[in-house]
Specification:
Spore Coat Polysaccharide Biosynthesis Protein SpsA, Chain A, alpha/beta, 7-stranded mixed beta sheet, binds manganese (II) ion, binds guanosine-5'-diphosphate-alpha-D-mannose, two-stranded parallel ribbon, 242 residues, 8 helices
Length: 242
């Protein structure tokens, strides 16, 4: 199938203290798109990282060009959910890819997301750790139980028809993502889950690509006890309201 000339992919990269990871993830994304030939832009949403991530991002912009690396920083840490909302406002692509900047989401899967989207005309393609060859590497037992438990609870309560609800490595049609964002109430980590639950509610076509999630080497996770509590609250809210 000949691909449409107009297709452009905007990759949203939220960063908070990712100065070691940003150069490598950027290089891998650039490499993936140079190989596929698809048009793209990388939108870095840095929340005033004290480690100087934004300075690193500026250097990358000098290397790859300001059409490829777009900087949309915010003054302080305002959370992951609102970082996406902020990023999409500036996206010029007709498709949006959301992924973590810490190398847990490998850019090599992007071409599979794109292929599946085109083959099956998906509105959303979701990376999944919990189907096919997907999996998680490097997490301790506690983190595995939290993630599995969060997914299991959500599966039982919401029956969303997708195997990985809390993952965030996804491809969306832009207008679909915008509509989902407009209808989502959660702002924290539970945002990922609400997006996929709403997607199913609206009857959007969701495709899944098994991914391996590799725990970060540099820096640390921003997910802590308070996120887990707000996840549980958000889950109950969704259960009650959908
Ligand atoms: N701009 C911005 N602001 N970026 C943030 C913020 C924030 O407040 N908090 C985190 N990030 C960025 C990180 O720099 C990273 O690129 C990405 O968001 C994910 O953050 P991590 O702290 O690495 O999350 P995680 O590895 O614990 O959680 C991952 O797995 C969860 C459950 O499986 C993420 O993929 C989550 O989205 C996912 O829900
Ligand atoms: Mn991470």
């Amino acid at each position: 199938m000949p691909r449409s000339k107009a297709d452009k992919y905007s990759i949203l990269l939220p960063t908070y203290n990712e100065k070691e990871n940003l150069p490598l993830i950027t290089w891998l994304i650039v490499k993936s798109f140079s190989e596929s030939g698809h048009d793209y832009e990388i939108i870095v949403i840095d929340d005033g990282s004290p480690d100087g991530t934004l300075e690193v991002a500026k250097q990358l912009q000098d290397i790859y060009g300001s059409d490829k690396i777009v900087l949309r920083p915010r003054a302080k840490k305002l959370g992951l959910g609102t970082a996406y909302i902020h990023g999409i406002k500036h996206a010029t692509g007709n498709f949006i890819i959301i992924m973590d900047a810490d190398l847990s989401h490998h850019p090599k899967f992007i071409s599979e997301f794109i292929r599946l989207q085109k083959e099956e005309q998906c509105d959303v393609v979701s990376g999944t750790r919990y189907a096919g060859n997907g999996g998680v590497y490097g997490w301790d037992l506690k983190r595995k139980i939290i993630s599995r438990g969060a997914n299991f609870l959500a599966q039982v309560l919401l029956r969303p028809g997708a195997s990985d609800l809390t993952g965030s490595f996804r491809l969306y049609k832009k207008e679909v993502l915008q509509r989902l964002i407009d209808s989502c109430v959660s702002k924290g980590y539970v945002f990922q889950m609400e997006m996929i639950v709403r997607a199913r509610q609206f009857g959007y076509k969701i495709g899944e690509v098994p991914i391996t999630f590799v725990d970060r080497f540099y820096g640390e996770s921003k997910l802590g006890g308070s996120e887990i509590i707000s996840y549980a609250k958000g889950l109950l809210y969704l259960f009650a309201s959908t």
